[in-house]
UniProtKB/TrEMBL annotation, chain A:
MF GO annotations: transcription coactivator activity
GO cellular component: mediator complex
Main location: nucleus
Keyword annotations of the record: Activator, Nucleus, Transcription, Transcription regulation
PANTHER family: MEDIATOR OF RNA POLYMERASE II TRANSCRIPTION SUBUNIT 20 (PTHR12465:SF0), UBIQUITIN SPECIFIC PROTEASE HOMOLOG 49 (PTHR12465)
Name of the gene this protein is made from: MED20
Origin superkingdom: Eukaryota
Biological role: Component of the Mediator complex, a coactivator involved in the regulated transcription of nearly all RNA polymerase II-dependent genes. Mediator functions as a bridge to convey information from gene-specific regulatory proteins to the basal RNA polymerase II transcription machinery. Mediator is recruited to promoters by direct interactions with regulatory proteins and serves as a scaffold for the assembly of a functional preinitiation complex with RNA polymerase II and the general transcription factors.
InterPro entries, per the entry: Mediator_Med20
Example GO BP: regulation of transcription by RNA polymerase II
Subunit record text: Component of the Mediator complex.
Protein name: Mediator of RNA polymerase II transcription subunit 20
Localisation per UniProt entry: Nucleus
Pfam families assigned to the protein according to its UniProt record, in alphabetical order: Med20
TrEMBL record, chain B:
Family statement: Belongs to the Mediator complex subunit 27 family.
GO biological process entries: regulation of transcription by RNA polymerase II
GO cellular component: mediator complex
Domain of life from the UniProt record: Eukaryota
Protein name (record): Mediator of RNA polymerase II transcription subunit 27
GO molecular-function terms, A-Z: transcription coactivator activity
Entry annotated with the keyword Iron-sulfur: no
Matches recorded under InterPro entries: Mediator_Med27
UniProt keyword terms in alphabetical order: Nucleus, Transcription, Transcription regulation
One Pfam family this sequence matches: Med27
Localization per Swiss-Prot or TrEMBL: Nucleus
Major localization class: nucleus
UniProtKB/TrEMBL annotation, chain C:
Name of this chain's protein: Mediator of RNA polymerase II transcription subunit 18
Gene that encodes the chain: LOC106117041
GO biological process terms on file: regulation of transcription by RNA polymerase II; termination of RNA polymerase II transcription
Assembly behavior: Component of the Mediator complex.
Function statement: Component of the Mediator complex, a coactivator involved in the regulated transcription of nearly all RNA polymerase II-dependent genes. Mediator functions as a bridge to convey information from gene-specific regulatory proteins to the basal RNA polymerase II transcription machinery. Mediator is recruited to promoters by direct interactions with regulatory proteins and serves as a scaffold for the assembly of a functional preinitiation complex with RNA polymerase II and the general transcription factors.
Species this chain originates from: Papilio xuthus (Asian swallowtail butterfly)
Amino acid sequence: MKRGKATIICEVKNGSYSQYPVPENKTGTYVIELLTKRILALGASQQGQFLVDCESYLSHPQMGTTKTVHILHNSEQPASVFSILESGTKNIHVIADGLFDLLMMKLSQHYTSKKQTKIESKGPRFELGDFCVKLGSVTMNQNFKGILVEVEYRPCVMANAVWGLLREFLQGLLGPTVPVQPTQHLMSRMNEIYTPIDTIYQYLEHFSAYRKVTGMRNN
Amino acid sequence: MNQAINVEQLNSALSSLRTVRSNVSLVFETLSNGLRADHGEDGKDKFLMELQELLYIVSNNLRDLEQTVNALPIPVPFNLGNTTYLSQETTQDRQALYTQLVNSYKWTDKIHEYSSFAQTLLSQNSLKRSYINSGSTKRRGKLQSNHNVAPLQVDNVINNIDRSYNDMKITISRPFASNAVVSINLSHVLKAVVAFKGLLMEWVMVKGYGETLDLWTESRHHVFRKVTESAHAAMLHFYSPTLPELAVRSFMTWLHSYVNLFSDPCKKCGCHLHHTSLLPPAWRDFRTLEPFHDECKQ
Amino acid sequence: MSAANLAPITATDSLSQALKANIIPNQEYLLQGSVLDSAVEVLLHRLRGLCDNVDAGTETFDDQEVCFSLRDPNQQAAPLMLRVRKALDARDMPFQLRYIGQPDLGDKSRPTVVRSSLDIACSGMLIEFLNELGCRIEFEYSVKGYMFRKGRMKITVSKVFKISQSSMSPEPISQSYLVELSVLAPQGQDAIGEDMRAFADQLRPLVQLDKIDYKRLGHMS
């Protein structure tokens, strides 16, 4: 299996940004610009844009207990489709090539897409030494939902070993008051070798949390 | 001093030779002139008397000459090789060769002199990496063989080190004849490759866990390039031709301390990342093995 | 902003572009036949003479295939068939997940069977995934043989085995080898069918490759 690098994804909540008054209706762009300025000041260079998207499919009611198939794409692995099947408490994943999307169309009788919950995180991508930082603004159905900052430390493959270092980096970037917590999935995989699917699981966990918050935040 | 005496002796020998020559020529001159008017009537007897006297002087002179020549020290014949024939050279432009010969002789002489000075200086200021301070010639002979140790012995040393660590896997390969190339897997943190010459470490390259290992390409990660630098410094620091096994073992102990490369903060500033380089503490103290940033180690 | 910093296009967009440009090989052109074990050496010899990939010896394969079906929730259409192949001789290779649609034999003038097909390379917990997805295992078998290539055409000569429960050596299903000539191509490239027919004719004295109608075979048994 392809090896990855330890990555954490941290949500920037506007609440914890109290020292930076955010003007009305400019939330996303303002914070992204602010963070961009900071990371460029640290000596980073912008290396393109990134995009992670997620579409979820629900099983046909006739098929028994409802199951959800999440299909995610990550521009870091452009030739792969990540598919996570949520069934009860279990998550089963498959990493496939691009044609898996076509298969999902063939399964349209069995699994139907919940178009209104299509969610993505998109934004600039920076490289800074051995770090890769992605500032993503999350939109669901064209509505702005929040900001996810992804920090990848490329030399290390074990989340456990590098956790303190990543937290120090993130708090240096976002401010010391920002709480940095590993997602549930990452907690369970702290001592394993990190792979790209672990990043996908982290995004899915954040995306699911956004979906649960109905409506758009107005601050 | 000795030379001065020799010159005096030589001078007296030459002057007695001159005396012999002039007196001999006097004998022949008298002889060729024959009877003269001043010899008078019984000039024949007088002439013979004069000749006898002269010959007597010559034989005296000859004795003197022999004495001084015998007193001269007999020179050991130099083997001058082809230069001997320079004296017999007749062509004008080649006769200058002798001066050049003398000049080059002087240069060689100077080199000899300076190198003997250098030798004294070196033996006074012992350098760690040279053999000079290592004592007797008997020991020196043994030392040089560290470049050329039986593969089996190298294997034993390295395998022994390998067995003493659970999280550091060391494997030996010999892609270049008999010299070992050792690859080291340190937990999930890093990989390193060390080239050996006999039992002496010659080259180290450190890379990340997911990278492919070879001797010459640098890691694509800044941090491992920094660790490679430190490893080169460590390799030189631990270098000890007299106790090569200890050197290898110390180096491996030092390298093993990188197991906490990402997890332990710097001992001095207490941070994981240095504020300018954004690197984790990529230096390990040689004695305490404590982690430091390159910038914090002083 | 430089071109490198432009936003990447979404996977859905690139897929629909690929569909529009018709570059996705989703049609399989297929001819099948069989030879007796005793005659297979002669056929292999002929193929070694005709095909491209023989410089480094004949390519072999040893796969295990599990066939899944997914029933239509509305009970109207036929069940969807999905096949998973795993190479037993190269365990670190990904699974091959394959969707095969209903074969279209067409009339006499059409040279080959055409069926829609999706070949997807997968890694991860695929069998478990399909089970949880609602698929049922229909049957499984292992298939072992030789693979040849001639231009875009793939020729396999293989033997089908039952999966043995114990550690005993697998039992062959028949005394013959299955010969398949196939090409995966985007829709509408029917000219390839003629090439395949021409190639099949070159093998004619040794093996007869034809459009096989499985429905009819089902009726016969």
